[in-house]
Amino acid sequence: MGLSSMVTSALGEAGLRFEADVPLGKRTYWRVGGPADALVFAGDLGELCAVQRIAAAHGVPLFPLGAASNLLVSDAGVRGIVVVLDRELADVALEQGDIAAGAGTRLTVLLARAKKHGWTGLEWAAGIPGTVGGAVRMNAGSVLGECKDTLVDVVVAVGGEARTLTPSDLNMSYRTTHLPDGAVVAIARFRPTGADAVASDARVTEFLAKRKATQPLDLPSCGSTFRNPPGDAAGRLIEASGLKGFAIGGAEVSTKHANFVVNVGGATATDIRRVIEHVEDTVFATHGVHLEREVIYAGAWDGWVRGR
Ligand SMILES: Cc1cc2nc3c(=O)[nH]c(=O)nc-3n(C[C@H](O)[C@H](O)[C@H](O)COP(=O)(O)OP(=O)(O)OC[C@H]3O[C@@H](n4cnc5c(N)ncnc54)[C@H](O)[C@@H]3O)c2cc1C
Could you please report the per-residue DSSP string of 197-247? Predict the structure, then answer.
């Protein structure tokens, strides 16, 4: 394991900042997951394209990491390069009336900036702990809307080159975005709606209070584990299957909101995946519904056997 010296030399020669063998557990919202072979930091589009070219030239997999608020990273960790966006790619500016946000920007930072300047149209991001890039990738959202609603376009790096894509190129729908293979979002541009900023702020405040009352926000989780099936709620199906409180090791189906799997202390990624698969199997057995996962399995899961 680990990157070859040829790859680390290439990263060094390109002037890229990187760290080898980095534990990811402290970075993930579930607080689980093994090490990344290397974390490489890309501060602008040029650096991001350079990382992609080096990874491709050496046949090394490259994984873009946001805030890890929708990821179950395996206990074995992630082979290859994990790329993290910072500096220019984690900054926000107003460009010709549109909000240009680096994909590494936390949504909380984006919202705080929007509130300060009275920009509206980003209410969908309220309460979501991810980054702009993760939000584009997931078409993140809530009852207040979704990422695609005010997205104008994105700049992505793909194959070591920059490209601009519109939401229709990305065919975005409920928690789904079709990025080209290997594309990493670098910048997303949003158009303010011009709606009343005070009214928008009031909606967000009310929404966040409701969330706090109904979701287990005091425990590590990745939010909703499953997408809601058409016309139903995953949480309702899981609760009706008698699974609230079901636990393996430190992973538990939340007693407060059944669509959350929480780390009540000392959970491993293996515990969490076993709970998720038990929920899938039980809901199918009791309701005949195949729940579709919203959280993403990342890293090395070689040899995983379901139901063991
Ligand atoms: C308490 C809590 C509440 C939540 N509530 C909501 C909610 O209301 N609505 C909702 O939609 N989600 C919610 N989530 C889930 C999560 O925050 C979102 O899915 C978010 O968009 C993930 O962003 P991230 O930066 O954490 O991405 P990560 O979890 O780091 O990554 C998710 C996927 O995006 C990819 N990715 C990340 N950055 C990039 C990039 N720059 N370019 C290309 N791909 C990239 C990753 O490779 C991975 O495949 C919640 C999570 C938590 C913990």
Answer: HHHHHHHHHHHHHHHHHHS-TTS---S-SBPPPTTS-HHHHHHHTT-TT-E
Nearest CA to ligand 1 atom 39: 133
Q: Which of 47, 88, 138, 228, when mutated, tests ligand 1's pocket best, judged by the most ligand atoms within 8 Å of its CB?
A: 138
CATH topology of domain 216-298: 3.90.78
CA 133–ligand 1 middle distance (angstroms): 8
CATH number listed for the domain at residues 91-200: 3.30.465.10
> Over the stretch 231-270, which tens digit does the pLDDT of each residue have?
999 999 999 999 999 999 999 999 999 999 999 999 999 9
What residue spans define the domains of the chain? 5-87, 91-200, 216-298
**pLDDT per residue over 26-66, tens digit each?**
999 999 999 999 999 999 999 999 999 999 999 999 999 99
- Assessment of whether the complete model's pTM goes beyond 0.70: yes
227 is catalytic: no
Q: Is the CB–ligand 1 distance for residue 299 below 6 Å?
A: no
Instruction: Confirm or reject CATH 3.90.228.20 for domain 5-87, answering yes or no.
Output: no
Catalytic residue of the set 106, 137, 175, 273: 175
Nearest Cα neighbor of 16 from 55, 65, 61 is 55
Would the CB of 235 count as within 6 Å of ligand 1?
A: no
